[in-house]
Amino acid sequence: MSVTESPGIYVPPAPTRRAAPAGRVRLVPAHARGRGLPRWLRRTSGPVALVALWHIASVTGVLPAEVLAGPATVVSSAARLIATGELQQAIVVSLGRAMAGLALGGTVGVLLALASGLTRLGEDLVDAPMQMLRTVPNVALIPLLIIWFGIGEAPKIALIALATAFPLYLNVYAGIRGVDQTLIEAGRTLGLGRAGLVRHVVLPGALPNALVGLRYSLGIAWLALVFGEQINATAGVGYLMANAREFFQTDVIVVCLVVYAILGLAVDMVVRTLERIFLAWRPSFTGA
Asked: What is the Cα–Cα distance from 248 to 241, expressed in whole angstroms?
């Protein structure tokens, strides 16, 4: 008698296998599914459509050349300025001013944020004056800057430094004070002293805010540069724009505006690259 036939002995039936499906269906995450046009094409379609509308309005006479030159005229003027070397020289001068002002203002803003964010005494001494000064319009300080520094390069760089210091101060200060207290307690549990906590916990935790502040400061640097280069400038993109304004050359003005926009986009891409490098540990939402 087999085991299965023995009385009083229960043998469970052998497990049955499910039939394998004829074809496997691969699940694709939602963010990896195709969405028609490539992303780079979708991102460039907006500016291309805007330029096309601008060209059509210029050709049909809806937008007179006296009001705004057409894209063809602007491209021709840009080629002429590049051929003579004026545009390259102006870009180098303006970029140097912006970076010098950002380096000065950013250094001061970060140091003040560290003093205010890491110590209560620093907060009491620094934060209130910074909150008052940041509400003062930077353009209103131009007469004082001219009196203090003359009409050379110093007031231009000082104006950019003042404009860029406050965004970095606010964001770095908020980043330091926004570090999770649980991480601080974990660091103390692991035996980190005050210096170790600042180096390994507080500063890395404040880095995302610091990079956001850097992006804001870079954008404001170009705005301050436009005003700064109106102070008796003899070179730079703002100087080209001021000369074009005197002779009603809207094509040159548009070229200068496009240069400002391209420079701003270029430095913003640099900051985005820094974010990808230094914040690779942080998962982020990339859009639905």
From this structure: 10
CA neighbor of 221 nearest in space, from 134, 131, 98: 98
Which pair of structure tokens corresponds to residue 87? 């545009």
Written as six digits, the tokens of 116 are 């205010």
The DSSP annotation for 224-288 comes to HHHHHTTTT-SSSHHHHHHHHHHTT-HHHHHHHHHHHHHHHHHHHHHHHHHHHHHTTTS------
- Can you tell me the distance from the alpha carbon of 8 to that of 262, in angstroms, rounded to the nearest whole number? 87
Residues 129-168 pLDDT 10s: 898 888 888 888 888 888 888 888 888 899 999 999 999 9
184 contacts: CB under 8 Å, gap ≥ 6: 197, 201, 202
65-278 carries CATH number 3.30.565.10: no
CA max distance for the chain: 114
Q: Which of 176, 207, 201, 216 is nearest to 278 (CA)?
A: 207
